[in-house]
């Protein structure tokens, strides 16, 4: 579910893929660029999930919970106060450049942080991802982080491909003017709220 | 911070042509009287339905005198939709208005009431010098990742000039843009091909060469700028310079194609030492190398020496003095201001390397002093200079002042400022709007910016 949300956000990847396709006048360029973009996004998610899971055994439930809440609220508030975006990229990017860009966009967005509640080392956890992946992380020390990140990224990939193709082939970019909601703002609020819920529940 | 993108942002230049007509124009006004009063930014009503049509309805004075307001630009524009650094929920709201002589940069808020803009921040020259090492700021473009500005020179008034960047949230000067400037020394205008990560810069001269007036000896010796520079926009490195030849003096306004998949653009040259003609050159990239070709030449016009200022008497001719060009958003019509001969030309540049003259209007001029149809008996001085085209390509606004000390050499009687509008046909042709003549009593108008954007305010990442 979170993967799908990230997939819809134009700032997370599909728009870059469409732009490169339009520049090259090729649908192939759209699809090819989604590969590194997904890789970068997945890497950002995997990094957070893996760190959390390796940290989990050494932390009590309470400590993990507080740490996750602080991270979520802290990052959410930071994003609310100070908007940022990368400065070093351009339109002529190769495979590694796109991968790094997607990694930075997802990391800067705090994309992986939202999975923290799911990774709480106890089943009694926050609501954010419980229905999605709760069963997989019931015993987190055995739950492979790569699966968590993989499931997320699959959702992301499917939505990114669908939106990119739909926009490239049919809808055109005029829809950006009306449909590009401030996903970053929504996300920052969601991070903060989730953090608070994690703390309280 | 907005919930939806600013409604004045368009993904492509083609889409921006569907924008509604502008209702207000902002005009930089120079106080040339020397009476100690400051320059100002005027708000002009350009809505034909309004009873204040063609009148100044608001004005903001600069805090100090002697700025020499010249060019200016928006804090944010359609480039905010670019995919690699997206921030479309920023507002097009602030005008970044540099003083070309004072090196003060004013940040002017056009909200809540766009008719009553007010200054919210002044960047002092010391900050620009400390952070960027430049002075005499000139062109402003809202880029995908910051506000880019060019500057004519170093703090001492010599070279090199270059480009620096402001943060588009805080307006802090982030620093000098160039990592490797190669052979570049002179600066003036800049713009880019966003789809190719290429910046183009042009050459006027150092501040010390121009601030006291146009030095005829420097001109005859071919000492002013005559090159174009191409840069890697992403790595901030000089790639190539192209020399137009030292007889081509003053290589000024750059108008790259708005379509980011293209690699061609146009640059105007003020004067050729060979025959006083002006010219427009088209650049393009061929097999990785940048090439430039002269595509338009505008000849000097013979004139009675009695009618000419000191500097031109011996030539018995008026040079066209092409000082500004502007390209419509569909990359189809190029406008050329001939400040000397008093003519605004329109070229069809559908084929950029074979332009076709598609329209012309006459007003002012050193020898001609052509009147405006609204008042056919009153001769006007100055000539078409800064030109701005509306997003839909149907209205063309232009003013008549160039640069204070140079104004006085070519129009020794002193420029009486005016703002004029011409209407453009959908398939070419221009005619002066006989209802639109705004004369400024004591200030000289320079660049015009249209509310919501115009043909030189925005950059696009999508074709």
CATH H-level name of chain B... which superfamily?
YVTN repeat-like/Quinoprotein amine dehydrogenase
Poorly predicted runs of chain A are 123-142
- The mean pLDDT of chain B is 97
CATH topology description of chain B: Methylamine Dehydrogenase, Chain H
Radius of gyration of chain A: 17 Å
User: Largest sheet of chain A at a glance?
Assistant: none
Q: Looking at the structure, what is the overall shape of chain B?
A: globular
Q: Per CATH, which architecture of chain B? A: 7 Propeller
Structural class of chain B: mainly beta
Write a structural description.
The complex is a heterodimer of chains A (201) and B (463). Chain A is mainly alpha-helical. Chain A contains nine helices and no strands. Chain A starts with a helix and ends with a helix. Chain B is 7% helix and 39% strand. Chain B has one domain: Methylamine Dehydrogenase, Chain H (7 Propeller). Chain B has helices at residues 13-16, 125-132, 207-210, 216-220, 310-313, 404-410; strands at 24-31, 40-45, 56-61, 73-74, 94-98, 105-109, 118-123, 135-142, 147-153, 162-166, 173-176, 190-193, 198-201, 227-232, 237-243, 248-256, 265-272, 278-286, 289-298, 301-302, 317-318, 322-327, 333-338, 343-348, 356-362, 387-389, 395-399, 418-424, 430-439, 443-450. The radius of gyration of chain B is 20 Å and the shape is globular. Classes of the chains: A mainly alpha (201), B mainly beta (463). Chains A and B meet through helix 2 and helix 8 of A and loops of B.
What attributes characterize this protein structure?
heterodimer, A: 201 residues, mainly alpha, B: mainly beta, Methylamine Dehydrogenase, Chain H, 4-stranded antiparallel β-sheet, 7% helix, globular
What layout of secondary structure does this protein have?
The complex is a heterodimer of chains A (201) and B (463).
Chain A lengths: L1 H7 L5 H11 L2 H29 L5 H21 L13 H15 L20 H4 L11 H27 L3 H5 L3 H18 L1
Chain B lengths: L12 H4 L7 E8 L8 E6 L10 E6 L11 E2 L19 E5 L6 E5 L8 E6 L1 H8 L2 E8 L4 E7 L8 E5 L6 E4 L13 E4 L4 E4 L5 H4 L5 H5 L6 E6 L4 E7 L4 E9 L8 E8 L5 E9 L2 E10 L2 E2 L7 H4 L3 E2 L3 E6 L5 E6 L4 E6 L7 E7 L24 E3 L5 E5 L4 H7 L7 E7 L5 E10 L3 E8 L13
Antiparallel strand pairs in B: 1-2, 1-30, 2-3, 4-5, 5-6, 6-7, 8-9, 9-10, 10-11, 12-13, 13-14, 14-15, 16-17, 17-18, 18-19, 20-21, 22-23, 23-24, 24-25, 26-27, 27-28, 28-29
